[in-house]
Design a protein that fits this description.
The chain is of the alpha+beta class and 928 residues long. The protein has 28 helices and 30 strands.
C-alpha cells in the first residue's frame, strides 16, 4: 500500500552514513592528574566581561615514544608561548617552526615537540589560556536571576559529553580518567564556590577575589568535572561527619528545597545499601550537593558530588506544583544519584556503550523511587514510561542497537543519548532483573562495581559479574542450556524487539508461540531472533504476581501443551506486568475472549499493567496493520468502567495518535464522539474537583482525563475549567495544582487578549519553576493570533521568562493546535532571519513544522517553501524532507484505513441512536 512505500522512503533516508573515526584521539598518552585554576569575570563592563582565565597542568605518561601531543581544545585562546612541557625539572622544547596547530573540525590541538618524549617517564604539560563564559549552556556558561530587582550572574558548567574541551585543554574521552585538583577564584561578595569535592583551603587575592582550593577528586572522566561560581545558598543541608549533602539554589527559592532534601538523603542511603557500596566510602572528601539552576540544557547532570538540575526538576512546592513534579523530582534525584555508581565509579569505556551509565540510571530512577517513595507510582512508570517509550523508538528498521559502534563525532555522541540508550536499555535491565531474581541481581551488580571501581566498564565485565550472581544463586537452573551472557547480550547487540504471536488450540489444549521482529511498517521483515523470557498466566487461575519466567524461548516457534485450556475452557495472558520487552498478539478467538472478559464486571481480574499492555499493543498492531480497527474498537468499550491511571494513560496515548492521523478530516468527529463516550464514565466516577481522599494516581488520572476531554469539547469539562480560570483571574481563587494545566489551557482557548496577558504576567512573576513550566506549555492554547505570533519569538524579549533551555517550548506549544500551522508557516517565512538568530539550527524547527502537516495542500506548500529557502542549509532541508515523508506516510495510512474506521464508528453511532430511541419509546409507553 502507498503509506508503506512512503514510510519506507522515510526510513531509508535515516540510514546512518559511515562514522568518521578521526574524531577519536587514538593517543598513546595516559593522563593521571590535572591541576586546574579558573578565574571568571562576569559583568565587569570591560573587555574581560564574561570571560575567564584558566591554567591547567596535566601529568601523563606515554606508551610509545612520540613527538606530538594531541589533545582536545575548543574555543580556548593560547599560543605556544603559553605552553610548558616538563619531565621533572627538565623543560622539553617545542618544535621551533610549527609548535602549535589547531584542528578546528575535530576540536584538536597538536603540540609539536622538538624531540620525542619517552616511554616510562612522567611528564607535566602546563597551559595558560583564556576562554569565554558561554551563552549556549555548554562548557563553562553564564546564568542569571533577579533578587530584589537586581540582576545576579553566576557561572555553571556542563561538560557531558564533549564540552570539557571548551573549559580546559584535556584528553576529553571517558576512558582517559584522572584525578582533578581544582582552584576556583570568585568575587569576594559571592558565596563559596562548589566543585566535586570539599574546600581544602582559602586564599584572599589582591584583586578582590577569593581563591578556594579543593581536595583532589576520585579518579574520574573529564566530563564529570564541575564547578559553580555563584551567590547560591543551601536551602537544606546536612553534615554528619564526612557525609555532606546539600540542596543549593538562588536565595529566593530556598524554601522550595525541603522535599528534594528529604528524598535525596533516603535515596543515596537506599542505593548504597542495594549496591553494597556506601557512597561516602569511595572518597573522604566527596560532597553530594544538588543544585537548582535557572537555565540548564539537560534535565540534570550527574557530576560526581555536584549534581545539577533545572529548577523545575529539583524544587517542589506542594501547594503550587502538580503531582507530576513530586514524582519527577524523586525520579530524577534517583536517576542522577544512581550515576554516582553507574557512570562515575565505573564509567563506560566509550560512548558506544553509554547504556552502561544511562540504562542503569533509567532503571533505578523508578525502581529505587518505588522503594523509597511508593506513593508516587514510580513502579507503573517503569512500564508506561520506559517500556512504552522503548517500543516507540525501536519499531523502525533504522533503530540502532543499544550498543552502537557508529558513534565518534560530538554530534553522533550527543545523538546516542536517546531513548534506546536510556529507556530501552533500562527496560532490558528490568527484564534481566525479573529473570534472575533480586539476590543474584544485587550480588552481580556489587561484583561489577567493586571489581571495576575507578576504572572503565565494558558490557563483558557486567555480564561476567551478573553470571557470578546467577551461579551463586542458581538463578537459571530451571532453564537448561541457557547462559545469562547469551541472553542479555542478544538484546544489547541486536536492534529492535519482538512481537510474540500466541495461537491457542482450544480443542487440543496447546499454545503455539512464534516470534518475529516488530516493525510499525509491517511490510518490513528481518531474521532477528530474540532470547525471550516468557511469562504467562491462565484465566482459570490468574496469577499476575509471579514474574519469574516460565520458559525461555530462543527459537522461531515453541509449542506449549496445557490440559487446562480444554478442561477449564480458559485463555492465557502473556508477559505478566510487561516484565518482558515484547509485544503480544493473540489469535482472533483469544482476542475475543480477552475482550469479553474485560467488558464483563471481572475486568479487575487482569492486572492493570496488563490491561494497559493490551490497549497499548492493540493500538500498535492497528498502526502496523496487524489487526483491524474493529477488534480494537470492540475491546476499548471496557474503558467505560476503567479507573486506573496506567490503563487510561495507554488509551489516551493511542487515541491521541489516532486523532493526529485524522486531523483535518471529517473522520476526526466520529473518533472524538467515540472517545468522549468512553470518557464519560470515568469523569463521572472521579468528579471534577479534588477530594481529600484522592491518592497520587487519582490526581494524575483526573489531570490527563480532563486535559483530553476539554480538548475534545466535553462541555462539562469546559464549563468547570472556565469557572476555575475565571475565579483565579477575577478573585485570585487558588486552583488545585493538578487542575491548573486544564484550567489555564481552556481559559486561553475560549479567552481573549486579556486572558493571555494575565497568564503571561503570571509566568513572568512566579517564583515557582514548576508553575512556569505549566504556563509556558499551555500559552499556545490561545486562539488570539497576535498573541501566538508574539509568543513564538518571546525568547527575544529582554530578561524573557523563556530561557535558552526552553527555546523550543513556544513553537511546540503553538503547534499542538493544528489550526495554528498556517500561522507558524507564515511567521517563519516572513521572519526567517529573525528565527535563525533565535535557533542555532533551523533543522528542529523545520522538522517540527513538517511533522504537524496533514493535508496534500500542507505538503505542497511546505515543499515549495523548502525549495525556495535560501537561508536553510542542505542538512536542515534534508531533515525536514525526511519528517515530511513521515507525515505523508501518516496521511496515506489514514486514507487507506478510513473506510474501516468509519464503518466501526458509524455502527457504534447507529447502535447508540437505536438505544436512545428505544429508551424514548419505552418512556412514552410507560407514561401512556
Amino acid at each position: 500500500m502507498i503509506w508503506q512505500t512512503l514510510l519506507a522512503v522515510a526510513c531509508i533516508a535515516l540510514q546512518p552514513v559511515h562514522s568518521d573515526t578521526r574524531y577519536r584521539l587514538n593517543t598513546t598518552i595516559v593522563p593521571s592528574a590535572y591541576s586546574l585554576t579558573i578565574t571568571p569575570y562576569f559583568d565587569t563592563n570591560d573587555d574581560r566581561a564574561f570571560s575567564f582565565d584558566g591554567e591547567v597542568s596535566i601529568t601523563f605518561v606515554t606508551t610509545s615514544n612520540i613527538n606530538k601531543i594531541k589533545l582536545h581544545s575548543q574555543d580556548l585562546i593560547y599560543t605556544s608561548a603559553n605552553i610548558t612541557l616538563k619531565n621533572g625539572n627538565n623543560i622539553i622544547e617545542l618544535n621551533e617552526t610549527n609548535p602549535l596547530e589547531f584542528e578546528e573540525d575535530y576540536t584538536f590541538a597538536h603540540i609539536n615537540l622538538a624531540s620525542d618524549i619517552q616511554v616510562g617517564s612522567e611528564y607535566t604539560l602546563n597551559i595558560v589560556y583564556q576562554g569565554p563564559i558561554r551563552t549556549d549552556l555548554n562548557g563553562f556558561y553564564r546564568n542569571y536571576y533577579f533578587q530584589n530587582g537586581v540582576k545576579k550572574w553566576l557561572g555553571a558548567t556542563q561538560m557531558e559529553p564533549t564540552h570539557a574541551r571548551k573549559v580546559f585543554p584535556c584528553f576529553d574521552e571517558p576512558e582517559l580518567k584522572a584525578v582533578f585538583t581544582m582552584s576556583i577564584d570568585r568575587p569576594a561578595e559571592y558565596q563559596p564556590s562548589l566543585t566535586n569535592t570539599e574546600i581544602m583551603s582559602v586564599t584572599e587575592m589582591n584583586n578582590g577575589y577569593i581563591r578556594e582550593n579543593f581536595y583532589p577528586t576520585p579518579r574520574m572522566s573529564t566530563y564529570l568535572v564541575a564547578f559553580l561560581v555563584s551567590e547560591f545558598e543551601a536551602g537544606s543541608s546536612n553534615t554528619l561527619g564526612a557525609n555532606e549533602l546539600g540542596i543549593y539554589t538562588r536565595p529566593d527559592a530556598k524554601n522550595q528545597t525541603e522535599y528534594a532534601f528529604d528524598v535525596a538523603q533516603r535515596i543515596v542511603k537506599a542505593l548504597g545499601d542495594y549496591f553494597g557500596i556506601d557512597y561516602y566510602s569511595t572518597n573522604n572528601h566527596l560532597r553530594l550537593d544538588h543544585v537548582a539552576l535557572t537555565d540548564f540544557r539537560a534535565g540534570a547532570m550527574e557530576n560526581w558530588g555536584l549534581i545539577k538540575y533545572r529548577e523545575s526538576l529539583l524544587l517542589y512546592v506542594p501547594e503550587e506544583s502538580t503531582p507530576y513534579f513530586k514524582y519527577r523530582v524523586a525520579q530524577i534525584v534517583a536517576h542522577e544519584t544512581t550515576h554516582m555508581w553507574f557512570g562515575n565509579l565505573v564509567t563506560c569505556h566509550w560512548w558506544s556503550n553509554t547504556w552502561l551509565n544511562e540504562g542503569f540510571a533509567n532503571y533505578f530512577q523508578d525502581y529505587m523511587t518505588s522503594l523509597v517513595e511508593p506513593d508516587v507510582a514510580a513502579d507503573d512508570a517503569l512500564v508506561i514510561g520506559s517500556v512504552y517509550s522503548a517500543y516507540n523508538a525501536d519499531d523502525n528498521p533504522d533503530s540502532p542497537a543499544i550498543t552502537n559502534n557508529d558513534v565518534n563525532s560530538p554530534s553522533e555522541i550527543s545523538g546516542h543519548f536517546g531513548t534506546i540508550t536510556y529507556q530501552k536499555a533500562g527496560s532490558v535491565i528490568r527484564m534481566m532483573h525479573h529473570l534472575i531474581g533480586d539476590d543474584a541481581f544485587k550480588y552481580g551488580l556489587n561484583s561489577y562495581l567493586s571489581t571495576n571501581q575507578f576504572q572503565s566498564g565494558y558490557p563483558e565485565l557486567l555480564y561476567s559479574a551478573l553470571e557470578n550472581g546467577v551461579r551463586n544463586f542458581t538463578s537459571l537452573s530451571n532453564y537448561e542450556g541457557f547462559h545469562f551472557t547469551d541472553i542479555m547480550s542478544s538484546w544489547i547487540r541486536q536492534s529492535g524487539h519482538p512481537v510474540l504471536y500466541v495461537n491457542v488450540d482450544y480443542e487440543n489444549s496447546s499454545i503455539e508461540l512464534s516470534q518475529k521482529r516488530f516493525y510499525i511498517n509491517s511490510s518490513y521483515s528481518s531474521d532477528e531472533l530474540y532470547i525471550i523470557p516468557i511469562t504467562y498466566t491462565l484465566e482459570s487461575n490468574f496469577n499476575f504476581e509471579n514474574t519469574k519466567p516460565a520458559l525461555i524461548m530462543d527459537k522461531k516457534t515453541h509449542v506449549l501443551q496445557m490440559s487446562e485450556i480444554k478442561e477449564k475452557q480458559t485463555f492465557p495472558i502473556f508477559n505478566i506486568q510487561e516484565t518482558g520487552l515484547y509485544r503480544v498478539n493473540y489469535d482472533i478467538n483469544t482476542w475475543h475472549l480477552i475482550s469479553e472478559h474485560l467488558k464483563s464486571n471481572r475486568s479487575g481480574d487482569i492486572h492493570y499493567l496488563n490491561r494497559a499492555k493490551i490497549v497499548n499493543d492493540l493500538f500498535a498492531f492497528l498502526f502496523a496493520d496487524e489487526v483491524k480497527f474493529e477488534l480494537l474498537h470492540n475491546l476499548l468499550h471496557f474503558l467505560s468502567n476503567e479507573n486506573e491511571y496506567a490503563v487510561w494513560n495507554a488509551a489516551l496515548k493511542g487515541l491521541t495518535k489516532l486523532r493526529n492521523y485524522y486531523i483535518g478530516s471529517d473522520t476526526l468527529d466520529l473518533i472524538d464522539e467515540f472517545a468522549l463516550e468512553l470518557l464519560d464514565g470515568v469523569i463521572y466516577r472521579m468528579g471534577y474537583d479534588v477530594k481529600s481522599t484522592d491518592d497520587f494516581k487519582i490526581l494524575r488520572n483526573r489531570m490527563q482525563i480532563l486535559e483530553f476531554a476539554c480538548k475534545l469539547g466535553h462541555q462539562g469539562c469546559i464549563d468547570r475549567s472556565l469557572q476555575w480560570f475565571k475565579d483565579l483571574k477575577n478573585n485570585d481563587t487558588w486552583i488545585q495544582p493538578s487542575l491548573r494545566s486544564v484550567a489555564y489551557c481552556t481559559g486561553l482557548r475560549y479567552g481573549n487578549d486579556e486572558d493571555y496577558e494575565f497568564l503571561w504576567n503570571r509566568l513572568v512573576n512566579t517564583n515557582v519553576a514548576n508553575e512556569a513550566w505549566i504556563i509556558a506549555d499551555v500559552l499556545g492554547c490561545s486562539q488570539r493570533e497576535d498573541k501566538l505570533k508574539s509568543y513564538l519569538v518571546s525568547m527575544l524579549l529582554e530578561n524573557s521568562p523563556i530561557k535558552t533551555q526552553d527555546l523550543t517550548v513556544p513553537l511546540a506549544s503553538v503547534l499542538t493546535n493544528y489550526s495554528n500551522v498556517p500561522l507558524v508557516m507564515d511567521e517563519l517565512q516572513s521572519n526567517i532571519s529573525l528565527w535563525k538568530s533565535v535557533y542555532s539550527s533551523l533543522g528542529s524547527v523545520l522538522s517540527s513544522i513538517a511533522s504537524s502537516l496533514h493535508t496534500q495542500e500542507d505538503f505542497e506548500k511546505f515543499e515549495s517553501f523548502l525549495s525556495s529557502c535560501k537561508e536553510c542549509s542542505e542538512d536542515e532541508v534534508a531533515s525536514a524532507k525526511n519528517s515530511l515523508a513521515k507525515a505523508r506516510a501518516v496521511t496515506a495510512w489514514a486514507d487507506d484505513h478510513r473506510s474501516d474506521i468509519l464503518s466501526s464508528l458509524s455502527n457504534d453511532a447507529v447502535t447508540a441512536s437505536a438505544s436512545i430511541a428505544l429508551l424514548v419509546v419505552g418512556a412514552l409507553l410507560i407514561l401512556y
